[in-house]
Design a protein that fits this description.
- By secondary structure, the chain is an alpha/beta fold.
- The protein folds into 3 domains: 111 residues, 4-hydroxy-3-methylbut-2-enyl diphosphate reductase, catalytic domain (Cobalt-precorrin-4 Transmethylase, domain 1); 83 residues, Rossmann fold (3-Layer(aba) Sandwich); 85 residues, 3-Layer(aba) Sandwich (Cobalt-precorrin-4 Transmethylase, domain 1).
- It is built from 12 helices and 12 strands.
- The strands form 3 sheets. A 5-stranded parallel β-sheet has the order 10-9-11-1-12, sandwiched between helices. Strands 3-2-4-5 form a 4-stranded parallel β-sheet. Strands 7-6-8 form a 3-stranded parallel β-sheet, with helices on both faces.
- Helix 4 packs parallel to helix 5 and helix 8 runs parallel beside helix 9.
- The mean pLDDT is 96.
């Protein structure tokens, strides 16, 4: 191309890493500094392939279960949280561990325990098989919590089988879809006990609001994030539902179809809460090298939240 095609690139903010993800990755990197490799992590620390590969190159070994961790080795629990039984297993094996669970996920764990202790049956809105959901359901006996994924699940619930009922949710859900499910649940259970503060985390809410703010202006939106990442998939869904039909999830920059992009005049770029800034910058550098770019920034919220690192890594 001799003459670069002109494009408008919308950059909504916030995008990229949230405080819980930053904390989890810092825990792993500080553990490497303090204890040396290898450091074992149960499940992916966050759902992003670039982050996982980067940490593996530094000496991190990701495992599915504690049985995969050698005796006397140190293990870190991922940002998504774990069932109580996993911590019990580590203690029984005298396996030193550091819990990198996001504090906002821990808040939901605490809510689940309080509702259970008060005699309430709990409805958890979330996605079956997601590590965060497995960890939350594993805080209390399984017969005291019911997973709700969609309206069909709610239709199957028989109100007469329950007395006191309470609600909690996964932290990385679609804000709008969750609101509809909560409305349906409240129609069945008018006395449903809701969280004192919304369980969907600030980062998920802000990134969805940011992508909504540009959706109708864009011919296409690119969401940088992992294919197994709940908050990444929700961003794609929200962008599409908010008016941008051509929405693409990009886990690796090399997978982008730049020829296809020539057909789009106005383009949006965002990144999920588990996607690193380096991938955003890589996209921007390539975009500017291929097209004449007019950058339009759109700030929805300023985020200045940070979470403490565990004491043993601060010493």
């Amino acid at each position: 191309m001799n003459k670069k095609i002109e494009k408008i690139l919308y950059l909504p903010n916030p995008r990229g890493f949230c405080a819980g993800v930053e904390r989890a990755i810092n825990i792993v990197e500080l553990s490497l500094e303090k204890y040396g490799p290898p450091i074992y992590v149960r499940h992916e620390i966050v759902h992003n392939p670039w982050v996982v590969k980067d940490l593996e190159s530094k000496g991190v070994i990701f495992v599915d279960e504690l049985n995969d961790v050698p005796k006397d080795a140190r293990v870190i629990f991922s940002a998504h949280g774990v069932a109580s039984s996993v911590k019990d297993e580590a203690n029984d094996k005298k396996m030193p561990f550091i819990d990198a669970t996001c504090p906002l996920v821990l808040k939901v764990h605490i809510e689940a325990k309080k509702h259970y202790e008060s005699g309430a049956h709990i409805f958890l809105i979330g996605h079956k098989g997601h590590p965060e959901v497995d960890g939350t359901m594993g805080q209390i006996p399984y017969d005291s919590i019911t997973l709700v994924e969609n309206t069909n699940d709610i239709k199957k619930i028989k109100p007469e089988e329950f007395d006191k009922v309470a609600l909690i949710t996964q932290t990385t859900l679609s804000v709008d879809d969750t609101a509809r499910l909560i409305k349906n649940l409240k129609e069945k259970f008018p006395k449903l006990i809701e969280p004192p503060k919304e369980d969907i985390c600030y980062a998920t809410t802000n990134r969805q609001a940011a992508v909504k703010s540009i959706a109708k202006k864009c011919d296409a939106i690119y969401v940088i994030g992992g294919e197994n990442s709940s908050n990444s998939i929700r961003l794609v869904e929200v962008a599409s539902q908010s008016g941008c039909e051509n929405t693409f999830l990009i886990s690796e920059i090399k997978s982008i179809n730049w020829d296809q992009m020539e057909d789009f005049q106005s383009i949006g770029l965002t990144a999920s809460a588990s996607a690193p800034e380096i991938l955003i910058n890589e996209f921007l550098d390539l975009f500017k090298s291929k097209f004449k770019a007019t950058i339009k920034k759109n700030i929805i919220a300023d985020e200045n939240i940070s979470f403490k690192i565990p004491k043993e890594l601060r010493e």
